[in-house]
Amino acid sequence: MSESAPDQPPRTRHGKAKRHHYVPEMILRRFAGPDLHLWSFDKRHPGYGIERKPIARLFREWDLYTSVDAAGGRDRSAETRLSVMESRASPVLDRIVAEARQGRLATVSNADREALADILVAQIRRSPDAFNSITAKWDFDAFIADRLAEWEAAGRSVEDADRADLLSGRFVAQTRRNLLAQTVVEPLLRVSAGVLRRGFIVGMLTKPNRSFLVGSALLARFNGRITQRNGFLDPTMEAWMPIARDVAICSYGERGNERIMEVEDAGLRKINGLLSRQSTVVASASRELVVAYTRRLHRAPLEGAVSPSA
Prior knowledge:
This is DUF4238 domain-containing protein. 39% of the residues lie in helices and 18% in strands. By secondary structure, it is of the alpha+beta class. It has a domain at 19-64 and 75-132 and 186-295. It is globular, with a radius of gyration of 21 Å.
């Protein structure tokens, strides 16, 4: 079912480790067909080609939100909180999709709005792509070396074995994973409050054979006209999150300006183009769509946002 090169790197087996999805399965189901499979392409392993996989094996990493302490103890509370958040948001998203397919804007309560704000904000932070883009410039090796030097300058000794362990790539990798696990739900109270002051738009695809992509970085954020940045304080910033193959929600404008709109082909290309550029993995029920966007990765991005105000 896949277009794979003959020489592939071995795939790692992970014993009893727990797999964590960074794109929720409850969202992936709305993109997949009855067999719950999608076509996908992983930029990290181009030799695998375009593969058809069950959604249970897509957009996941082993123990992604598990932090490990010095004694080897595992804390999976972040994954538990994310699961609760997904359970709150899932019926709201189901209702939005069902109403949009009938050409109507779903009525949402204050609790529904909170669930939408939380899932949207968490989707920014929980993605390894987003986390790696933030921490790419952090020099963990230098930070650890500096702390060791300060420790020794204070007259405290460090055993050679401990020094080697601290400076090992394994320790740095685990430190990064712990940081992701410990901060994945941290910004919700602060940022979600700002999102709640914004309006939202439901974007609908009505033409046949059109579909949103799913990306490992699931939000397509377009700079606002006021600040020329993609922060939520600018009401003209657009944050699009596809929630089904034919439906996306967009945080935009001031609260009270909610509406439904058709996403035209030009807007769809901008959303899918940004998702494909910023994501390590892209997927769709349409193999042709995945092929098309893997071929466009090196093209210049389309200018401008989707312009829901038009």
